[in-house]
Every structure is written in C-alpha cells, then in structure tokens.
Amino acid sequence: MRVGTAKQSYAADEGLFKTDTQKVWFGLLLAALVLFPLNGSSYWMFLAVLVMINVISTTGLNILTGYTGQVSLGHAAFMAVGAYTVAFFDGRFGTPVLLNLVLAGAVAAGIGYLVGLPSLRIKGLYLAIATLAAAVILGFIFLNWTPVTGGLRGLNVPTATIAGIELATPDRLYWLVMPITVVMVLAAKNLFRTRVGRAFIAIRDRDISAEIIGISLFKYKLMSFAISSFYAGVAGGLWAYLFRVVTPESFPALASIFFLAAVIVGGAGTIVGGIFGAVFMTLIPEFLKLSATALVPWFPDASIYLAPVRNIIFGLLIIGFLIFEPMGLAEMWRRTRRYFALWPFRT
Amino acid sequence: MTRLTRRAFHQLGLGAALVSTASGRAFAQAPEIVIGAANPMSGVFAFAGVEGFEGGRDHFEFVNRAGGVAGRRIRYVNEDSGYRVDNAVAIFTRITSQHQTPVFFGDSTGFQKAINPELNRRGTTVMGGASFASEIDNAQAFPNQWIPGPNYSDQMRVLLRYIAAQKKGASVVLVHSDTEFGRDPIAAAEAEAKRLELNVVEKIVTQPGSVDVSGDVLKIRRRNPDYVIFHGYVLQPIPEFMAQARQAGMTSRFMGTFYSTDTVLMNRAGAAADGYMGVSCYNFDATARGVQVEAIRAANVGKTRTHAYYQGWTNAMLAIEVLRRTLAANEELTAVNMMKHARALKNYDTGGIFGVPVSMVNNSFPHGRVYQYSAADKMLKPASDWITITAGA
Hints:
Strand content of chain B: 15-25%
Low-confidence stretches of chain A: none
Order of helices and strands of chain A: HHHHHHHEEEHHHHEHHHH
Helix content of chain B: 40-55%
Strand order of the largest sheet of chain A: 1-4
Number of domains of chain A: 1
Oligomer: heterodimer
CATH architecture of chain A: Orthogonal Bundle
Number of strands of chain A: 4
Number of helices of chain A: 15
Helix content of chain A: over 70%
Radius of gyration of chain A: 21 Å
CATH topology of chain A: ABC transporter involved in vitamin B12 uptake, BtuC
Strand content of chain A: under 5%
Order of helices and strands of chain B: HEHEHEHEHEHHEHEHEHEHHHEEE
CATH topology of the largest domain in chain B: Rossmann fold
Structural class of chain B: alpha/beta
CATH architecture of the largest domain in chain B: 3-Layer(aba) Sandwich
Number of strands of chain B: 12
Largest sheet of chain B: 8 strands, mixed
Distance between the termini of chain B: 75 Å
C-alpha cells in the first residue's frame, strides 16, 4: 500500500509523472507500443493506427472542450483541413512528410484561430452552432475550390515516404503515427503544467473570474482554438496518409459528434480520458462486429440481423456511461488505480 | 417431456457429422475460394447493403450447388461497413489478412477510391462494388475494379437519348443532391443534352434527404419542363416532388437514375410514383428467360427484389466468370490475370440479367434501359429497348 507521495520540491510537484509507479507504467506502455507490431496482423495494425489518429484528434478537442470549456462541433472540419493540406502539398510539390504534417497542423490552427473569433462573444450552444456553421463553410470551400481541393472528386494522396522507405501499409505507417501520437499526447499533458494550460482551465471554470485575475480571454480562447485545431490538422494529415484519398465527404459532421462523444465518454478535462474515449469509440464497434462475425458459422445471416443490434448496444453503452459514470472512463481508471494504491484497504 | 440421453445425443452428433461430410465431399479436395465484402448492413444504406449482400450470397449458393468454380467451393465473407470508409477499409484489411481473397466487393465510391492504391499495390485482389461513379470507370486510374453496369454519366445518357427519341428539343430540368454521388453525372448530362439538342432549362440542387421541396417544385413549375431527371437520391424527396407537382397540375415526366428507381421503393411511395421512369441495366421484364434470371426467380419465390439485389448478384456473377476463365487458363489468381479476363468479356451472355449481351468498356458495362413504374401493377415495365452507350455516339 502506498500511503502518500512526498514531494520535496516545486519541480517534483509540477512533474509530468508524480510517482515512480507512473514512470514504470509509462515505460511499460511505451514498450508495449514498440512491441505491438509483433502481433503480425495488418488488421490490428490498421486499427492501431486509426485509434492513434483518433487519440490525437480527441486530445485536441479535449484541450478546447474539456479544458477550456469551448464546445466545438466543427472539429472534423479541421481534420479535413489537415488532410487536404497534406494531399495538396505532397501531391503538388512532393514536400517531405513531416513538413506536410506540420503544415497541416499550422493551416488548421490558422483557420481554427479565425473560427474561434466568435467565441469571444458567444459560448455554450451558441458557440457550438457557430463552429458547426464554420464546418459548413469549410465544406463548401472543399467542394468548390477545385484547383486546390480537387472539388467533388477530392485529392489522391501519395504514399508517405521517409528516407526512401514507403509507408504504404499500416504496419509501416505505425512507425510514423505512433511516435507522433506519443509526443502530441505528452505535449498536451505538459501544456497543463504551464501558465497557458492553467489559463485554459481558469476560463473553463469561470471566464469572468479568469479575466479579473488578468487572463486575456481574447488571447487564450483563440490560442485554445488554434492548438486544438493544430492537433486536428495533424490527425487529419495522418488520416490522409492512411486512407490516401480525401474528398469533401471524408469528414462529415457526424465525425465531429464522434470526437465530442469520445471526449465525454473518456472523461472531459483529462488527457487520459481523451485516450480512453478515442480507444472506446473506435474499438467497441469493431469488437461488437467481431462478436457478430464469430456467430456466422452457426448463424450465417448474423451480419444482417445483428448489425442494427450492434448499433443499439453501442448507443446503450454510451448512454450507460453518461448515466452511471458521467466523469467518463478516466474516472473509472482513477478509481481502479486508487483501489490498488490503497489495497488491502478500501476507500 | 422427452429427454435426450447421452447415447442419443452422440448418435445425433455422429449423424450430423456424416451429413456435413457427405455434403462437403464434392469440395473435399479443392481449397475454397474466399470472396470478401464490406456491405452497409446498418445505417442509411442498409436497405441496399442487405439486398446487395443477399444477391451475392444467393448467387454463390447457386454456384456452389452446381459444383463451384473448377471444383472449388466459394466462401462469401461479408461484414457490415455501416457505409463508413474507415470501417470498410478495416473490413478489407481484416478479411484479406485472414484469407487469400481474389475478389472483394466494396460498398461505396468513397471506399473504392480509398482502397484503390492498396488494391494496386497488392496485385492480388480485384474489386466490384456498389459504386457506379463515373470516376471509377477509368481503366488507367482504377485498373483492378469494375462497375456492374453503366456509370452514372452513361445512365444519364440513356435517359437523355430516350427523351431525344420521344421529343426533339424537349426541355429538361436536372434535380440532384448536393453530394459527390449527386453531382457525379451533371456535367456529362449537360454536354449530352447539348449534343442531342435538348434544353436543360434548370438545375436544382437539394440536400439528399430533404423533405420541404415546395420552393423547388415552384421553380420546376415556372419552367414547366417536359422532363425532370433526379439523380443522387435513394428515394426521398422524389415522391414528395411528384406529389406536389401533380397537385400543381404539372404534366412533366419524372425520371431517375439507378438508385432513384426501384420497384420496392416505388411500391412504398405508392400512387405518387405512378408513371415515374428510370434507367436500369438489369432486366425486370417478367418474360425474360435465361439461366441467371431464372435462378433469381427460383431463389426468391413470392418476393420482389430491389435493384441492389440484382447488383449484388451481377457482381457475384462477374466475379465467378472472371475466376472461372482465369482458372481455366491455368493462370494464377492475380489482379492482372483476372482483370485481363474481365476486360475480355465481349458480347457476354449474362443469362438474362441484362437484356442484351454485354461488353466491358473501360471498367463498366454501358448498357441500360428505361423503365416506367405502374402503381396499379406495382412493377417497373420496360419503356424503351436496350440502349448501349458507345463513345462518340
């Protein structure tokens, strides 16, 4: 049983990892990520890459919605901006992959900055509708700015190539996506040890109070939009390299709901919640589908009859979380950790 | 109550094993051929996905009962894509990583475009699917895919040629959804109308499932066209357009492309759909004869099947033909070999599925026919002969 964590300096108190146990677990997680490709299944590698892209995007939305309290229904549109940016620069100029991803994030951040402007006057549902409207405008641009976006037919994305190695398959792309995901998640975690991150939280908790204590709402709200959009842009860029085609229909409005649901199910305002949420929202439908597929030898038409049931179960799971665990998966994780930390005593 | 004894249970198990062994004996020596599919079994396109899946499933059962392909049984592995590209890619990745899959059926234009580089990279799988996108009808860009009928632009051409044959200089309004699907053939339709000296007097863009169409009906009424062609809808809002137009006393003829024309959907629309005309490449003539069309009837006694079912069946039939020809030539089941035989399909007898012998041009089969829906008889009736779209004609 661990009875407490003695911190003997301010640096230790602000540390990314508070205990040695956390460091060990993080090391084990990294080792698991490095060893994961040994499973040898391109299907699992594809899912891993998709999950990690969703983790980046959900973390971005978590910064904006979970930490800064600004609801956005346009997150998928920022992913689309990133995807188009990668498709445009790689397809047109053949620029290096990492530069394309930085550009994807930067362009999305710039647009996110503009989209965030209404947040200075409106909030809550009104802001959500404003971001949705921005997504509609972006959708119109994707469809009609044909010389850049390819219009209706979209753009094909060349295979990501680094140092002459083509990352044509999920197995290879994993080695690009995984480190970027780790770095971006750690960066997000680190953000909330800084003045900027704390300003975001202050704005979320009470914006008027935050302004009174000297936090510029103008600066920090827009910064939150820009950082969130940067994450979405990078995620979109990686998505483009995974699917290798971007069309105006690649990122529908429903995708924004997906990320918002991931933030809520995972636990808004916690980095680990964003990760859990993205994993849950991506993998649970897949596991439910695998369950239906497993029945095929005995029930050949399982895919016909169980497909709608699967969606109902998925929906019920989300509703169940909202009712029974409104703090999300992160809270369950925290309780589990506390249980083992205090074992054999109960909280 | 009858109780099952342990002995009886074992006897039943032995019996079941013997039956399954006997039925599988014909295929015992040869490995199965796995054909994969990602169909939308849930979501807005579930009605088409389920029918498409059943069309393929019924055809493969028909083939297996007849001894399979070169003595090899077909195993059809289908999963629900929910009409999402990422789901469909996951399904493709999983099925192809677990089985050697020479043929895979896709669920959408988005998926078929997304997976195209992977298909080309692998060189072991060819693809048919639910998409009739004009973009995919390009043998250079999509060398390993086929379209089980005419592309959307050719479907429009069939309708416009029918119109031109009915009335010279007829006026036409094009109504399409604001989607990639909806916009696909519009430019080609305008060019074809110009070539045929038809007047496209208005183009109306709507949301795919929009309900309030009164403003758009007023626009059509102002133009009072001879024909109104819908594209990019599954059903809504076509019945609403037609009902309001009838109430307004309009006499325009309403038409649509493949997914907007379907007996089952028309039956649901009822009287409002009476007289609606649409293009299909499949043969709904009740008097049609042929091995395949009769097999469809035998598998569906008392049922009316949608276009999607015929599409699933046709994809399966083309897949079987390509596999059969490739194996008969003692060639490996590579994409290059299979597509070579697919492209060699010239004047191919589809057993009544198409009303004419078909030929693959680029990646599609540019044949179609105009049907008219009769609400009284609850069926589509042929309104034109078969029309083949040839380049420059």
